[in-house]
Design brief:
mainly alpha, 1 helix, about 40 residues
C-alpha cells in the first residue's frame, strides 16, 4: 500500500494583516505615545 501525500495549501488560512498593514500599525502605535487604542485599516 502506498501513502498519498495531501496538499494542505487550500486549508492554509490567510494572515490577519499583510506586511504593509503590520508596518502601518507599528508606526501608528509608535507615534501614538502608547495610548492603547489601535486602529487597523481594512
Amino acid at each position: 500500500m502506498s501513502k498519498t501525500q495531501q496538499s494542505n495549501k487550500e486549508t492554509k488560512k490567510q494572515p490577519a494583516m499583510s506586511p504593509k498593514e503590520k508596518k502601518q500599525a507599528k508606526q501608528a502605535k509608535k507615534n501614538s505615545g502608547g495610548s492603547g487604542v489601535t486602529i487597523v485599516p481594512r
